[in-house]
Amino acid sequence: MGVVEVAGLVVERGGRTVLHGISARIAAGSVTGLLGPSGSGKTTLMRAVVGVQKIRAGTVTVCGSPAGSAPLRRRVGYVTQAPSVYADLSVRENARYFAALVGRDAAAADAAVADVGLAAAAGQVVGSLSGGQRSRASLACALVGAPELLVLDEPTVGQDPVLREDLWQRFHALAAAGTTVLVSSHVMDEAGRCDRLLLVREGRLVADDTPAGIRASAGTDDLDRAFLRLIRRDGAGAA
Amino acid sequence: MSARILGATIGRILRQLRHDRRTVGLVVAVPTLLLTLLYFMFEGAPSTFDRVALVMLGVFPFIMMFLVTSIAMLRERTTGTLERLLTTPLGRLDLLFGYGVAFGLAAAVQAAVAAGAAYWLFGLDTAGSPALVVLIAVLNAVLGVGLGLLCSAFARTEFQAVQFMPVVALPQLLLCGLFVPREQMAGWLQAVSDALPLSYAVEALALVGRQATPTGDTWRDIAVVAGAVVLTLVLAAATLRRRTD
């Protein structure tokens, strides 16, 4: 039984089918990477997992409950691609508000701010931060609830290499402590750091395997090239 | 609804307001500045000033809080914070009542300052209690908050949101009985006026101006405005969808 169970998920947006019957399972305590070209449906799939996406058909189950249902709202943390924090509040005030919503105290909020490396900027208004700092502020607001499932949409965009390294170590530390992490990226060199990869192309699941498995089935050690091969193979099959 | 989440949300909205000193300054000072203008306009006609200033004490908070709220809520929608909030244990009413209470508190400060200036600086004379005037002003502000929350659902940009002000606020102001007494209006205009909540607020203020103690009519008018507040908040709740396209 996976923490996330997606079965036959079909999503239409603006009269266009964005996800064509996706089925996948995400195991507890793992870091799963959701990869694919931009516009392939990664964000839509993540929105379905957190239960804010209208779906046409299929089911999404999280921790045994339908995605988005009330009991899940303190067990799932979601970080959108554009940092969804209040630009006119300080980092600390943002973290403390989101902490209060899930019943955590100010100390937990301050710890989450420190965890994403923003302790020195905690008193700064989010609107005055750099893009990378803003997205870490947004991440802190999700970490503060110590969620069982953490859904992160492109969290490493705009981060320097040192911070990216820190963030990935943090995702693995969280997974080792039992948190299930679903993280999207279009940077292939990050794919190798995941326990498992879901490769999406034009709303269809092209691969669902470990990085090693994907390398083996594509016949190359380079994940970047492996993805290109799998996508071309899939494109040829579809055509 | 949860008291803890509602309290946190009220605190968060007030903190946002506190970071925006210029808005705070405008909210507090503008009604008083406009009253100053009225005072000099009607310098030779104190009874006209009494009538107009009393109505304006109720109208200014309504318009200002409508604008502030529709922009604030539109920002929640466009920056993704609304979608994020709806993935947390926060309920829709926690958010809407959070705005109602937070901006209602701001409106109370605004109304107290404006009423203070009207009574002490400009010699506003009412038969009834100034406290009742402030109460009606705050209720009007919360009505503006409710309508602002509702209208923000129909705007995609801040440009569109501010255009709702003339659509929602000005007809109510024109038909509330300030410019033409309601009983002199054509029947159909009167019917429209009867359907607009601001008409009741203005009538209640006029009654406070004339009567030393509030009568059943005053309380009925206040109840109608309060009912309209609840109705707008419920309608606004219906526009907040957890799942979107």
TrEMBL record, chain A:
Entry keyword Ribosomal protein: no
PROSITE patterns: ABC_TRANSPORTER_1, ABC_TRANSPORTER_2
Keyword Nucleotide-binding part of the UniProt annotation: yes
Origin superkingdom: Bacteria
Stretches assigned to the ABC transporter domain: 4-227
SUPFAM superfamilies documented for this protein: P-loop containing nucleoside triphosphate hydrolases
Keywords noted in UniProt: ATP-binding, Nucleotide-binding
Any GO MF annotation of the entry: ATP hydrolysis activity
CDD domains: ABC_DR_subfamily_A
Pfam family, any one: ABC_tran
PANTHER family, per the entry: ABC TRANSPORTER G FAMILY MEMBER 20 ISOFORM X1 (PTHR43038:SF3), ATP-BINDING CASSETTE, SUB-FAMILY H, MEMBER 1 (PTHR43038)
Identification of the protein by name: Multidrug ABC transporter ATP-binding protein
Automatic annotation (TrEMBL), chain B:
InterPro entries found in the cross-reference section: ABC-2_transporter_component (IPR051449), ABC2_TM (IPR013525), ABC2_TM_bact-type (IPR047817), ABC_2_transport (IPR000412)
Molecular function GO labels: ABC-type transporter activity
One Pfam family, short name: ABC2_membrane
Membrane topology recorded in Swiss-Prot or TrEMBL: Multi-pass membrane protein
Residue ranges of domain ABC transmembrane type-2 in the record: 22-243
Keyword Protease part of the UniProt annotation: no
GO cellular component: ATP-binding cassette (ABC) transporter complex
Residue stretches spanning the membrane: 23-42, 54-74, 95-122, 128-150, 162-180, 222-240
Annotated signal peptide: none
Family listed: Belongs to the ABC-2 integral membrane protein family.
Protein name per Swiss-Prot or TrEMBL: Transport permease protein
